[in-house]
Sequence to fold (207 residues):
Amino acid sequence: MTLRVALTGGIASGKTAVADAFAARGVPVIDTDDLAREVVRPGMPALAAVTAAFGAGVLLPSGELDRRGLRELVFADPARRRALEAILHPAIRAALEARLDAVEAPYTIIGIPLLAETGGRDRFDRVLLVDVPPALQKSRLMSRDGDSAAQAEAILASQASRAERLAIADDRIENTGSLAALDAAVEGLHAKYLAAAREPGRAGPRR
Fold:
């Protein structure tokens, strides 16, 4: 059984750079954002369920899900957001388990940006947090996406706090320095996870 390492962090923290550094070392990387797109492709049961729950207005003329429109629809409505999560999360989890069952590697990185918000920490052997101060997140978000200060603050406020993410983390990369420093941190964790995967009697996470 592959050692499961959940990679998480707030928006604009540098999760993609960390995932890419692991991938460069030959480590399988599964991005749950990609799985979230896969489970709502036309013809998939989850898309039919979303359409039944939210109406045909969430579809583009092509029959694909209007992801941006759906995000705007549920962003400020907790009840609708929970209804959407009740449809998508089981489908994403099933897709993730199928992908993990096919992995033949000592360990796998699973990108889950909203792990602190959605729960499920017990399904993983380790949680790796990419950590940055909120002020740096805000400035990166404004620079990357062109958001206003108010927009960036609203997005950050909708996510778990830094303290909540730290509370579920087993390992942490503080991504406030150079790419070289980030790569060195990944190299150290790569050795750590390879060693952990070889530990005798490792029971693995609960499913």
The chain has two domains: 1-28+106-202, 35-102. The mean pLDDT is 92. The first helix runs from residue 15 to 23.
